[in-house]
Amino acid sequence: MSPIVEAAALSLPRAMAAAAAEMDEALDALLPAVEGPEGRLYEAMRYATIGGGKRLRGFLALEGARQFGVSRNAALRVAAAIEMVHAYSLVHDDLPAMDDDDLRRGKPTVHRAFDEATAILAGDALQCHAFTVLAEEDTHRDPAVRAELVRGLSRAAGPRGMCGGQMLDMLAEYADEPLSESQVGRLQTLKTGKLIEFAAESGAILGKAPPQLRHALCLYGRELGAAFQIADDLLDATASADEAGKRTGKDAAAGKATLVGLLGPERARLQAERLVAQAKAHLDGFTERVDHLRMLADFTIQRRS
């Protein structure tokens, strides 16, 4: 690898690490430790969100906002809100009634570190607080922009997004026949893809971007989200728990519907590579500021955690 190429390849991990640190600072300010009876709830919320994780969704929001000169403070608030919703989904996903996981991001899951009831409340509170953050004037002075952000995130997280996908995932475990490739694709689009798609589009909403550029980021996020889920399923099938920071091999054990299980690892990997190429093609109308987004697409299927 040439020094120029190597430097470019290293720039994405550095950029993601720096952005993750900024998001942690924003989350620390938006979720302050408090005294009193509700202090344990805030502690659990902070435990679920601050520190750890790739911050991929928040990074997408920041990079999208960077294309349109959005203030860093506004972009960080949106990124933090998205990460709160993502964290809430993980807290609930790990509960005994869902996937019953003990490890998340290399540490005990919230219901293990605290208790099951506190984990449920922490997830509920994180979801609610995310929309409070988006609705506040500090996020954007234009109420129409704030309303669009609230609507977009609620759609991505709701019955036709993440929650709907989780329901399909649960039902698939008890289906009489295995899901088809298109059915698995729809499940994964809802469960994982919609939030990633909104994260990519959110910076364009903040920046009041031209429709064609906003649509391009939306499509980029859609393809990226699909590739990300395939890569996640490949990790579950091939990575160790230490590498992934969570229990692996659980999809096959639970009989979950995945493209890896349906197509096999090699065909699934090829599908992910095609999706990454399509995602990057949607960025052709932007300037050199999209270098990180292009590299992020490749990172999505090369990661080991």
TrEMBL record:
PANTHER family: FARNESYL DIPHOSPHATE SYNTHASE (PTHR43281). This is Polyprenyl synthetase family protein. PROSITE patterns: POLYPRENYL_SYNTHASE_1, POLYPRENYL_SYNTHASE_2. Belongs to the FPP/GGPP synthase family. Its cofactor is Mg(2+). CDD domains: Trans_IPPS_HT (cd00685). Pfam families: polyprenyl_synt. It comes from Craurococcus roseus. InterPro entries: Isoprenoid_synthase_dom_sf (IPR008949), Polyprenyl_synt (IPR000092), Polyprenyl_synt_CS (IPR033749), Prenyl_diphosphate_synthase (IPR053378). It comes from the Bacteria. The keyword Flavoprotein does not apply. The lineage of its organism: Bacteria, Pseudomonadati, Pseudomonadota, Alphaproteobacteria, Acetobacterales. Keywords: Isoprene biosynthesis, Magnesium, Metal-binding, Transferase. The keyword Glycosyltransferase does not apply. Coiled coil: none annotated.
